[in-house]
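User: Sorry, what's this?
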Amino acid sequence: GGRVAVCVQIRSRQGRGSGRCAPERAPAGFRSRPSTPAPARRVASALGAASLDATPAVEGQKKTDDGATTEDPQPSPSASAESFSWTKAWYPLSPVSLLDPDEPAAQRLLGKELVVWKDSRGEWHAVEDSCPHRMAPLSLGFLNADKTALTCRYHGWEFDGSGACTRIPWSVDAKAEETACGSASSRAASYPTRVIAGLLWVWPEAGPEAFVESAMAPTPTAGADRLPGEWSLVELPVGYVPALENQFDPTHAEWLHCAYGEDGQAVQKSAPVPMDRFTVRDGAIGGKSGFVVEHGGYNAQNISIQGERKFTPPCSSRTEYLTAQGEPLLSAQIYYTPTEPGRVRMHTKYLPHKAAMVFSAPTPVDRLAQLKEAPLQWFVNSVVPTLPQGELIQTGLVHGLNKREYLIRDQDVAAMHGVEVAMDRYGKGWKKSYYLPAPADVGVNAFRTWLDRHAGGGVQWAPEAGAEAAKGRTLPEDERYDRLSKHTIHCRSCRAALRALGEWEEQARKGAGVFFVFGLVFALTGAAGGHAIDNFASLASLSVAGLLNLATGTLQDAQHSFISSVPRRGVPKVQLWDTRSKSNRGPIQID
């Protein structure tokens, strides 16, 4: 393969070092300039992975009897020269628009329990979610009257944005309170925060040095603030690693997210086309800089696209799709925040530049579905905004009733969770477990290479996270497809919509009862007096009662859509692929 110059630090026994440039053979396909196909295939075989150039297949790639590849790649000198520290980076916790500025919110990051809140000056703060007094969660608390401190609901202790205790109601006098508040033992650990591109970012190290270091570190938001619209948030019950692998594996969408016919076979709007272009730009994979992969299309519709996916550690994936003429087709920014072992939070923005090329034409089945949903859309768009908190509730309804978005994520979870459980149980590592013979596998190989060489092979969790206990556990279906913890609990709009739906259901239920009673009364008086008007009033009242009873069931279904993908009625099993409809409208997926 090609050769690249790598600057390494050579240390003597006395600990002194000198910098010098030494040649290093580039990993398979990570090339600074073209090389002949045969050497590229030999190095790819040694990696036990796909060739990272346009070679259609890796010849001679084999596994030994124990599943190992023929050779194991050796870490390059550059790997130790540019390692990545998981605790010295910015992570997005939530879109600011989804947070309630009047209430503290519990959050998790790298297994750490945090609480975030906004003070009267408009500044967001993050402190450990544990009161130094008796360890009660500070997220159970509330903001004091002037919003300058977070009050612990257990005993009333108050803490400012720096984590310092400012009030202890049970102190015997002012001097005792001042002494206690000045003690380091009364302080809650505070973490650096910043708001950029509409997201609340947190640095997962506490202390004065962390505030200095974080102030000089950039956030990977270049271009993200120029994407219009609101951020979407979903927290998936799968780990950070399978989620990032999924993002750099675009071809999975052709099978995982397509529709299936009544015969159980895939019904794809555009025939899948094998990828023959998938490379790591300049062969560069850096500990802090990440990498960029470039690829072509993977179905008959997008075969001519020019795709680029840029990974900036630890959480940013920026995607750009261009037409063959170089015109923008699709832009996407996704951030992956590892919240706790077995869970990752995704923050996403999509911008389709050419809708005609992104969406398929609606089928008759699509049009029928649209006709059925028209009354609901009219209610959400025309009636709800006129209600108290109408805009908030409307946003929540749009989130909660988005069946397509939840279906795609449920399909992803089904596959990724299975991968994660199998990897944990067998414990052989990806090089011995995966067989990646095609160019389409280059993205997964590139991410795994970065993870192994620069980031210690996986997320560095907080000691209290219990990472080992979470390994190899198959989640029951209701946990895998739970929507409450995926999104609703994190979104103030969805919480407002869920509360409103519950209130409307109660009103509809009471109304149905009242009209039913009226109907019976009118029926009895009509029977006794023979008055036609009484019979008509009875019929009208009972009809309204019936309609309100139907509305009660509809509102219950709507509430359930905020809570779980598991059906409320019938067999409690999620139908991930609808075999009754051949419709598969939707944007080109960049998961």
Q: What stands out?
A: Residues 44 and 51 are 5 Å apart (CA to CA). The chain has 15 helices and 22 strands. The longest helix spans residues 492-529.
